[in-house]
Write a structure and sequence with these properties.
With about 220 residues, the protein is α+β, with helices and mostly antiparallel strands. Helices cover about 55% and strands about 15% of the residues. Strands 2-3-1-4 form a four-stranded antiparallel β-sheet. Strand 2 and strand 3 form a beta hairpin. The N and C termini lie far apart (about 70 Å).
Length: about 220
């Protein structure tokens, strides 16, 4: 018995490779669904700076995952080598937006499902996920958090500022306070009662208030 005979078996000999038609169909569908994921990501992005590179990565990731799974399902020996090759890969790119993780898993899942031949599941599932993300992520609400940065000259005016914000907003919480001689700076998280932000103009005109800034922010407050 030679070394090659050890790895020969009727099971491996009967494994059929992927046909050109199946491969082309899978990659075309992966490209189409990858573009759909890319467009949904572009429409739902709410970060500070949009990165087109990450959107293209989602498209490429969908097609690459489809290609890898097609190879794994068509050849048992290749699947063992693929597991060993992928086990040494390390990704160290930081994910800044939690929603980006959902898009990464979405792209990978679509590639796996397409390569497994479950085309209706991939198409219908992607459409449902895309619609849900478009509806919930793009939904505008006046209860979104805002930060008000106010500079006043003394403690008395600081108290007036707090009372004014508590009456003008749905919720008001002090996040940080900086006190210097003749200057007090407050960073306060607020929730608006409605979409009207005219109260910030009135706040800036109050006696003793040198400036008032309203900022919308995403993510956790670090202070």
């Amino acid at each position: 018995m030679t070394f090659n005979d050890i790895f020969k078996s009727s099971f491996l000999e009967n494994v059929s490779s992927v046909s050109i038609l199946d491969m082309a169909l899978a990659l075309v569908l992966a490209f189409g669904l990858g573009m759909f994921i890319f467009l949904v990501y572009k429409k739902t992005y709410r970060g500070v700076m949009y990165s087109s590179g990450f959107g293209v990565t989602l498209l490429a990731l969908t097609m690459i995952t489809t290609l890898v799974i097609l190879a794994v399902t068509s050849n048992v020996v290749l699947s063992l080598g693929m597991v060993g090759a992928l086990s040494i890969v390390r990704f160290r790119t930081a994910i800044k937006e939690p929603l980006d993780i959902a898009f990464l898993f979405w792209a990978i899942a679509v590639g796996i499902v397409l390569a497994a031949g479950m085309i209706p599941l991939a198409v219908i599932g992607s459409v449902i996920i895309g619609v849900i993300l478009l509806v919930f992520v793009n939904r505008k609400s006046h209860t979104n958090p805002y930060i008000v940065v106010v500079q006043c000259d003394n403690h008395k005016n600081e108290t007036k500022v707090k009372e004014f914000l508590e009456k003008s907003t749905y919720k008001c919480t002090v996040k940080s306070k900086t006190a210097q001689k003749g200057l007090i700076e407050l960073n306060m998280e607020i929730r608006l009662k409605d979409d009207n932000t005219d109260f910030i103009n009135k706040l800036s005109e109050m006696p003793g208030v040198s400036s008032a800034v309203l900022v919308s922010y995403n993510g956790d407050y670090m202070g």
